[in-house]
Amino acid sequence: MSNTHSIPAFGLGTFRLQGQVVIDSVKNGLDLGYRAIDTAQIYGNEAEVGQAMAESGVARKDLFLTTKIWVENYAQDKLVPSLKASLAKLRTDQVDLTLIHWPSPGNAVPVAEFMAALLDAKRQGLTRQIGVSNFNISLMQQAIAAVGASEIATNQIELHPYLQNRKLAEFARSQGIAITSYMTLAYGKVLHDPVVQAIANTHAATAAQVVLAWALQLGYAVIPSSTKRANLQSNLLAQQLKLSDTEMAQIAALDRGERLTSPEGLAPIWD
Question: How far is it, in rounded angstroms, from Cα 2 to Cα 6?
Fold first, then answer.
């Protein structure tokens, strides 16, 4: 089972970036060759992302733009209007991918309701593809029951060498749903790992390049962010780095189930 979706393997994240900082990051990224940008309603930076894209000179058709619907906008009568508001901020009439950001707190809005509303947004042409974020296997099963696996482009989850989420990734793969890894560098924690550093030395690469290459080789999409142009440029080179089976196995052995993002009231019961 496989979807016809195409999610760019390498994108630019904008989480926690605000104001001029996010404008500069996106402009630098686009100038360096990034063509996929990831934002969200709750990041409070959609307008700045839209401004940076508009001023970059890169044609909209050459970009892949993702946003995420916030939990307060899941109800059937709110989701589409909220996405239209996002489109206005982003200065575009359509995004390429729209995700449900977190499960509905306390299941206030049932999965079937918000997935149907999201599919409606797609049918209205507001988004080319739809998907989910921070869903466990049970929630993914509910989303699949609501709209079909072929409609779900990706599940965007925290995934890095210290939290490899194999059970969830395996389930997604079995359904033809792509995994997008966020916080692939674990807020920079894995960059100091001696195993990662040793592999980086072997390849004359950076630790970040090694970790990103590891995720890419496993078939995951990545969306690293940086405020520094040099790091944005360096991260892109991860796409050229090939790790050996031994090196991949060494990183696989680093998994310790260390989750860094699990907000109370939002996070599901993780697999």
Answer: 11
Q: Which residues pair with 152 in a beta bridge?
A: 130
Nearest residue to 34 via CA among 242, 226, 207: 226
Q: Has 74 been annotated as catalytic?
A: no
The residues, ordered by sequence, that sit 6+ positions from 61 with a Cβ below 8 Å of its Cβ are: none
Strands (E), the chain: 12-13, 36-38, 64-69, 95-100, 127-133, 152-158, 178-182, 221-222
- pLDDT, one tens digit per residue, over 212-252 is 999 999 999 999 999 999 999 999 999 999 999 999 999 99
Q: Which of 43, 74, 182, 220 is catalytic?
A: 43
What's the pTM value of the predicted model, to 2 decimals?
0.96
Q: In which order are the strands placed within the sheet that holds 64-69?
A: 12-13, 36-38, 64-69, 95-100, 127-133, 152-158, 178-182, 221-222
Per residue in 85-126, pLDDT (tens digit) is: 999 999 999 999 999 999 999 999 999 999 999 999 999 999
Please state, in angstroms and rounded to a whole number, the distance separating the CA atoms of residues 214 and 92: 34
How many other CB atoms are found less than 10 A from the CB of residue 101? 21
